[in-house]
Specification:
single chain, 316 residues, alpha/beta, five-stranded parallel sheet, 9 helices, 28% helix, elongated, binds flavin-adenine dinucleotide, transport, electron transfer activity
């Protein structure tokens, strides 16, 4: 079976959940091979092996890690040339979508971004995307070259399948043209102790209905082990950081469970959460548009409903 390349999302060798998801998806299309960019591959190997990576192409090269995007695309193109894969999968992020676009030009292959699902299909690979703020579901197939696909987090539950994760070092000379923007410093984000919003399996969000008091939203999120999101109204009021904003001008999330508390359901908010698998809303206005798209709705005051829900989960 042909190889399917998966770009590893990691922090200093600590592999993120999205990589396990992509390796699981890759097994539907061929034999997964991980592409690891950076040092400390030894820390990453056990998890890559656990989710089915037969090979790990390692690009440990400062000319790639010290510069923005263009060298990464060159590095991926070098691995594509070496492996002749059936497909290349990357976790969706601003950087990876740019790298994927550059890679598709270099390899003259078709590109699909922000896929929600990927399946093997007759003569190719079929993807599912959501378009126009979730108004349309689009099925698409790449017709030229090995498909390059970026996948949103939570596209598929990770399933373990032990493999060997054999390390294959990749030698590469990055062109001077690609080294046009050097990274001069990077600060790790202060950790909240909660999962990353775009990666979380569950998200509890608060809106203007919180009146600035996010404590019931946070308490419910914490009992579930969920990330906390916010509507733009809450962010614009200064009640929650912009990094937590969900929507058209915020983050796009696609968790297993999304709980919207005191959020009316404006189209710009839906654009960031409509592809969530299960949606619950708590709103005291039964006419609120959010109830049009929920799986479960609670008409009530979030300051009464959320503490009860938190206690009920705690009691389990
Ligand atoms: P509101 O619309 O004011 O709704 C508050 C809701 O809380 C109401 O339904 C009310 O019934 C309910 N409520 C009040 N009190 C309680 C209570 N005690 N218990 C339960 N329910 C209660 N918005 C985003 O969210 N994300 C974006 O990325 C985004 N991008 C935008 C981009 C553009 C270009 C524009 C024009 C707008 C954008 N917006 C975005 C703003 C969007 O149009 C809405 O204004 C915003 O989503 C409203 O936020 P909200 O639902 O919290 O507030």
């Amino acid at each position: 079976m042909a190889e399917v390349l998966v770009l590893v999302d990691h922090t200093n060798g600590e592999v993120k959940k999205t990589t396990a998801e992509l390796l699981t998806v890759a097994r539907r299309l061929g034999t997964p091979s991980a592409v690891f960019v950076g040092a400390n591959v030894d820390a990453a190997r056990p998890r890559l092996a656990q989710f089915g990576a037969e090979k790990v192409y390692v690009i440990d090269n400062a000319d790639v890690t010290d510069y923005l995007v263009a060298p990464l695309a060159e590095a991926l193109a070098a691995v594509v040339e070496q492996a002749a894969p059936a497909a290349v999968l990357l976790p969706s992020s601003a950087t990876n979508k740019e790298a994927a676009a550059r890679l598709s030009i270099k390899t003259e292959s078709g590109l699909i971004t922000d896929a929600l699902d990927v399946q093997a299909a007759d003569g190719g690979v079929q993807t599912t995307q959501s378009a126009f703020a979730g108004g349309f579901t689009v099925q698409a197939t790449v017709t030229k070259g090995a498909p390059i696909i970026t996948l949103k987090p939570n596209a598929c539950p990770p399933q373990a399948a032990q493999a060997s994760a054999t390390v294959v070092p990749v030698e590469l000379a990055v062109s001077d043209g690609a080294k046009s923007a050097k990274i001069t410093g990077s600060e790790p984000k202060a950790k909240s102790g909660r999962p990353e919003l775009t990666e979380a399996a569950m998200v509890v969000s608060g809106g203007r209905g919180t009146a600035g008091d996010f404590s019931p939203v946070e308490a419910f999120a914490d009992i579930l082990g969920a990330a906390v999101g916010a509507s733009r109204a809450a962010v614009d009021a200064g009640w929650y950081p912009h990094a937590n904003q969900v929507g058209q001008t915020g983050k796009q999330v696609s968790p297993q469970l999304y709980v919207a508390c005191g959020i009316s359901g404006a189209i710009q908010h839906r654009a960031g959460m409509q592809t969530s698998k299960t949606i619950i809303a708590v709103n005291k206005d039964e006419e609120a548009p959010i109830f049009e798209l929920v799986d479960f709705g609670v008409v009530g005051d979030l300051f009464e409903v959320l503490p009860q829900a938190t206690e009920a989960v705690k009691a389990k």
